[in-house]
Each structure stands twice: as structure tokens, then as C-alpha cells.
Amino acid sequence: MDPRQVIERARAEGRAALTAPEGRLLCEAYGIATPGEGLAGSAEEAAELAGKIGLPVVLKIVSPDILHKTDAGGVLVGLRTPEEVRQGYDTILANARAHAAGARIDGVQVQQLVGGGGLEVIVGAVTDPTFGKVVAFGLGGVLVEVLKDVTFRLAPVSGDDALAMLDDIRAAEVLRGARGAEPVDRAALAALIERVGRLVTDHPEIVEVDLNPVFADARGAVAADVRILVGDRPEEVARLPREEILRQMTRIFKPRSVAVIGASAETGKIGNSVMRNLIDGGYRGRILPINPKADEIMGLPAYKSVADVPGEVDVAVFAIPAKFVAAALEEVGEKGVAGAVMIPSGFAETGNVEGQKEIVEIARRHGVRMLGPNIYGYYYTPENLCATFCTPYDVRGSVALTSQSGGIGMAILGFSRTTRMGVSAIVGVGNKADVDEDDLLTFFEQDDNTKAVAMHLEDLKDGRGFVDAARRVVRQKPVIVLKAGRTAMGARAAGSHTGALAGDDKVYDDILRQAGVVRAPGLNDMLEYARALPLMPAPQGENVVIITGAGGSGVLLSDACVDAGLTLMEIPPDLDAAFRAYIPPFGAAGNPIDITGGEPPATYENTIRLGLGDDRVHALVLGYWHTIVTPPMVFAELVARVVAEEREKGNVKPVVASLAGDTEVEEASEYLFQHGVVAYPYTTEKPVAVLGAKYRWARAAGLLR
Questions:
Q1: Is the pTM of this model over 0.85?
Q2: pLDDT tens column, 376-432
Q3: Which of 112, 316, 405, 569 could form a disulfide with 36 if both were Cys (CB 3.0 to 4.6 A apart)?
């Protein structure tokens, strides 16, 4: 029977789950190996089937009304004689009727016993509310929900992604044959993962697939138990063509005119702050105050309605109460405005879901793209555009930052001011009723003013849309994400092990990594990554070398490198000898290279030049210890000069520094940052974490040799 017919029959009968024989039919259709088996309608028939299949066997109840067979006493394992099979048949039926007296029983499945010595793993798929069909792989068996050693990828899964899943679990070494055990057939296991991905992609009505256990060994992979849940076909997400998104976003970020609906001459009003920021920020386009009660605001002619404005309007900033927004948005739509910037709160975030639906419908009907509602506005410094009621900002740079929260947006602003981190854009997305992160990524992807994108998000409206956009952007520039809600909120109620394992953050974590996104563990991390990554050249390989003036710092820096997923280079003999020529006899070569604390500036210079000049070294981590012999600013000026000179020669590598000492190391760290070397005082972890983030992006972008 065709798989679609099997699924349609189950749904026509009102069933949410396929029976085991039906699940086996789907597995056969997709080349998923299952044990030899048959369906018995009597004890004698069960014994005959066992003889044909080969003893020992497993017996399982087959009932559309009993999903969890083990809980119903509906599974018996290791029956070795025909008589044991007959008795087992009767026992299983009795257990099933005691568990659910009215359950429909199709019979008893007689299955070949597999798994002698094989490793138990789980392969499955769930329908995630954010990302759609997601494939899971991990350790299986009865401890699967206890260990939770599982990883996820978007379906369908490519061969490379399937193989990567095998290495992504904590027990990956077991698959490779730990302690002399025979390794599993990785190709067969990866193929099984791929086939599950194709199955759920081809049949969207499949809600969950749970193959547990799958017995994997050197000869292949066999799914001993199959559980498949079915339901309604998910709604397809409507997406605009990329060219259309880009056209709209370009008008929003590079507008020729901005109307302020609710503009005010009264200090303290949001409409006044927006006007003041547009004017004082130096925006060069037309600024159009809209206020039915004013003829002039802040020296500019005011209009009763946006409809009264002569010529085109690209952006309308709303600074009016929520109850007036819908009517004003109709006028904006009729005017042909490209973007509506919805500062007002009072929509879905306060429970006014219907009000938000209304303005979304109006915007879509007119083709208006809407930022918000419930946002602080947005900045785009190349156009001197401060369309916000918050502090104006004029430090141009190459980082675009977005936030779903106004408070986080202000933290972004404060950090960028304090550190003088120039930005290309700061954007509030708020409720994301319309414009979301993938729309913004589509613009930043082709924006020459943006070299890195950092995003704070609490959720994603369209996970697959985000992944598609992020994958494109990551090829050229880093995408950094701070995902709020990192702690487990509890697994969703589900009818399978796979569903129970699909905690929200684990799925987010794996799929963001699949997209090549650099995930930041906290707000300061996101901001530091955004500040530092554009300054650092991309590494060309994995070899990291630590040069330190303090043995204690070297140990901590080594630990930090391991935590950040970096590879400490095994120093070859000739390079080891070259380093030893510059350090005192009581220093230590190897990696870390400890030049000791009493060395003059020349020792730092010689060892750093050597590391930068050797093609086998791909990145340097410097550990500085404050001494009178080499004071902090002497160290900083020396490092900046040496790095600049070596880059002129073509020795372009990332260099990060950790500075320990008195307060002078703060000024030295800032000096290094200003000269393209990422440096932090009083910490060994932060510079290495930033370097690790750069490496994660470089790997995702395919830049490493």
C-alpha cells in the first residue's frame, strides 16, 4: 500500500497514530530497515510465525487505541520456544484488555529479536511550532529521556548534516567504538537519519516519528520499534519574494521622506522627541509633521493628514495612542507609504490581540511593511536617520543590532556609546506583527555599510525563513544571536520519546548552529561579539598559539580555549626551537609559550612577530602581566605596532589579548581595541570567547583550510 494511503486511512478512521504494521509499511517504502515480523491473530499463528522468522522473538500488541505498548504490558521480549510464544500471546491479550477494556485489537506482532551487542540509539522527527519538521538523533533505549543526549536538524537532512549529527551528541565517542568496541556503520546510520527526514518532508501529515530503539552496529542500523503519529497538514507560511522584501526594506532604511504621525511641539511628548531626533540627527530627507491641530511644528509646515502631503512618503512613524492607529494606518496605506514604524504599545503585548490583527490586515491589504508595534523606533546612521523617541545616536560604524525588547535596545545604545562601537543600524522589532528578523537580514545581507549583525530575540515567527536568510548572510558576515528563554520551559506534551525530548531551547540551539549563527550566552556577550568580530580578520586554520608573560594566565587561557572550542597548536620542533631562542631558559616553550614576567618589550615583540610570521600559526592569544620592565601602555603600543606591520606584510591573523595588572591595563586595553586588537583587562575568558565566536563564524562560512 502506498504510504499516503496508509496515512489517509488512519486519519479517516480518526486515529492519531499508525499501528506497528502500518509504520513498518512506511519504513519499507523509505528503505528504513526493520526486523522480520508478522501479525498473528491467534496463539498458534504466533508460534508458526516465530518458527518462520526465527526464534527468539518479541511479541507486541497491535491496537490503534494503545499507543504506549509497554505501559499496557503489551510487549514481551526474548521468547525462545513455540510454547513460550503461545503463552506470551495469551498474556499480552489479557494485559491489553485489562489496561483498556474497550480497545480495538488487531492482533499481536511477532518480531525478530535484534540488537545482540548493538548500540541502542533513537532516530525521530517532530513538528516544531517554530521550525516545522525537525529530525532528532541521540542515544536510545529506556534511558533516552533521562540522558537527553540528543541533537536536532531541520528536515530534510543532507548527508553532511546527518553525519554531523552523529558527532554532535555527548556520547559520539561510543559510536566510534570506545574502549576497543566495534564502531557502528556511520554511513548506514546517517542514511537512516536522511530517510526519516525525507519521510516527514514528503508527508507533512506526519506529526512525529519515533524509531526507538534503533540497533546500530558495524553491519548496519535496524529500527526495532516504530511509532508514527499523524494529524492535520500544517499551514504553509506565506513568504514574500526576496526582491520584494529588499525593495521595501531599502525604502524604509533609505527614505527620501519621513512623516511623523502625532508630531508635537510639546516637550516630553513622544511625537516631539521623534521630531527633534530627526532634525537634530541631521536627516537630510523631508521631515513631515502630521497633526490635525497644528499648522507648524519645530519650524516645519504641519499637515492635517498624511493624505495632504504633496508627493511620495516613504516612512510613517506612529506616535499616537493605539486606539487611533488603525484609522491613521488606512490613510498611510492609501498614500502608498512603504514602512509604518509603530511606536505605540497597547496591542498583543497587553492582550489586545484583535487590535493587532486589525492593523496587520490593513497593512497587508495596502502593501505597507510594519515595524512593531511596541518599539522604540530605529536608527540607520549612514542616512543620519534617528526615527526614535530615545537618545539620538551618530557614531557611524559597521554593526547592525536589533532587539525585541525596548530595554535591551537601550542597553545596546548605552554600550555602543560607552565603547564607541559604531553602528550602521539599531532596530526595534517589538511584537513583530509584520517585519521580523529575516526581513532585516535580507536588507543587511546586501548593505555595504553593515559588516556584522547582532540580534536579540525572544522567539521567531518563521524559523525556516530566518534560517534561509541567516545562511545567506553568514557566507559574508557574522550573524550573532542572543536567544532569550535559554532555560528549559519543559518539554511539550507529546506521544513519543522524540517529542518529549524536543525542549524549545535545544531545538533552537541546534538549528541556529545549523544555520551558521553565532549564539551569545548573554547580553554582554552579544554586545562584545558585535563590537569585536568586525575588527578581527578571519582565521585561515585551526592552530591557536598562546604567548603569555605569566604561567597562571597561560593555564587559564588554555582552559578558556578548550571551553571555546579552539585547538591549541602542537608546536613542531623547528618552531619550538625558534621560540626558545627568544625566551629565558627558565621560561617554557610548547603551548602556552611562557616568556615569564620579567622580560623586556623586545621579548614580547620577537615572539609575537614569530607567531604572526609563521604560516602554520593561525591565531594568537596574548597574556600580559603588568610589570615595571614592560608597562601596560608600552605593551599596548608595541603590540599594535607589530600587528600593523605584520599585516602590511600579508600576515593577517586574529590577535586577542588578556591584560592583568593595575588600573593602567584598562587604558592599554582600550588603546589596543582602537588599533584593531581585541583586548580586555582582568579577564582571561572574554578575549578567548570572542576569538571562539570568530572561529564559529569562520567555520560556518567555510573559510578555514
A1: yes
A2: 999 999 999 999 999 888 889 999 999 998 889 989 999 998 998 999 999 999 999
A3: 112
Q: What share of the chain is helix, strand, coil (3-state, %, to 5)?
A: 40, 20, 35
CATH architecture of 243-373: 3-Layer(aba) Sandwich (3.40)
Other beta carbons less than 10 A from residue 176's beta carbon: 13
How far apart (Å, rounded) are the C-alpha atoms in residues 485 and 479? 19
C-alpha closest to that of 624 among 672, 655, 659, 667: 659
Are 568 and 558 contacting, i.e. CB atoms less than 8 angstroms apart?
yes
CA atoms within 13 A on the CB side of 594: 15
Task: Kindly tell me if the per-residue pLDDT of 195 is higher than 60.
Answer: yes
CA distance 154 to 507: 9
Pick from 529, 387, 505: nearest CA to 452: 529
Structural contact between residues 278 and 287, judged by C-beta atoms closer than 8 angstroms: yes
User: Residue 445 and residue 378: Cα distance in Å, rounded?
Assistant: 18
Same fold, 3-112 and 119-230: no
Extract the C-alpha cell encoding 537: 580578520
d(CA 379, CA 392): 8
pLDDT tens readout for residues 155-170: 999 989 999 999 999 8
* C-alpha closest to that of 532 among 684, 686, 704: 686
Residue type, 444: F
d(CA 370, CA 261): 14
**163 grid coordinates:** 553525519
Angle at 653 between CA 565 and CA 620, to 5 degrees: 55
For residue 703, CA distances in Å to 281, 474, 537, 694, 699 come to: 39, 11, 11, 11, 6
Query: Taking 60 as the threshold, does the pLDDT of residue 541 lie above it?
Result: yes
**Per-domain boundaries in the chain:** 3-112, 119-230, 243-373, 395-535, 537-700
For residue 494, which phi and psi values (nearest 5 degrees)? -150, 160
Max alpha carbon distance in the chain (Å)?
99
| Architecture (CATH level 2) of domain 395-535 | 3-Layer(aba) Sandwich (3.40)
Q: Which CATH architecture has domain 537-700?
A: 3-Layer(aba) Sandwich (3.40)
Q: Does domain 3-112 have CATH number 3.30.1490.20?
A: yes
What are the angstrom distances between the C-alpha of 95 and each of 53, 79, 314, 657? 24, 17, 70, 67
Residues 136, 498: contact at Cβ < 8 Å? Answer: yes
Query: Which burial class, exposed, middle or buried, applies to 321 when counting CB atoms under 10 A from its CB (0-12, 13-18, 19+)?
Result: exposed
Beta-strand relationship, 132-139 and 150-154: antiparallel
Main-chain phi, psi angles of 284, to 5 degrees: -95, -10
Give the Cα separation of 666 and 664 in Å (integer).
Answer: 5
Q: Within its chain, how far is the Cα of 411 from the centroid? A: 22
- Assign domain 119-230 to a CATH class: alpha beta
> Taken in order 304, 307, 313, 317, is the CA torsion positive or negative?
positive
- In this prediction, residue 142 carries a pLDDT of 64
Which helix (H) or strand (E) segment is 545 a member of? Answer: strand 543-548
